[in-house]
Amino acid sequence: MDGDKMSEEASQKAVRLFFAIWPDMETRMQLGRLTGRLASVCEGRKTKTENIHLTLVFVGEVNASQMAALYRTADEIKDSGMRAFHLPIERIRMWKRKNIVYAEISEIPQPLIDLVEALQSRLSSAGFSLEERSYKPHITLMRNASCKTLPELAEPMVWRVREWVLVKSDRTSGGSVYTPIDRWSLEG
Hints:
By secondary structure, this protein is of the alpha+beta class. It is built from 4 helices and 10 strands; from the N terminus they run αβαββαβββαββββ.
């Protein structure tokens, strides 16, 4: 196979993508320390500090020909005046059926709901097939967890959300690797 044909095939390879809120360094370190505390009371696989995020919309497998529509949609949403907000993290919870320990967002800010709804609506209109389930914002801290107790937060964490990102998800033998590939600012 010649080089041009190989590069053409490589550019057509689909990538797994999702939109998320990516924490600033301070919030990332706070959540990373929290996963370390969880590891002392739970067995399981903790989320790597560099992978901590809040998913907005999982897009799924996207090929090169769909990328322009994805970016156009994201740019339209950015230009529609989406507002920055604070995300209060108040409790640690566990979904026993799924064995997932997560940080709970107890009061969901309206700008977060607006951003998720805009992404879902516009991505669907652009032809992307999205999961059809209600949005439950959470920050996964540990998977395959078995916990004796869950730590209490001494005080709520406040995550200042000023942007949202498009993230590439790669599966590796060491677990998933998430790489932000583009960012869009929120107003305010």
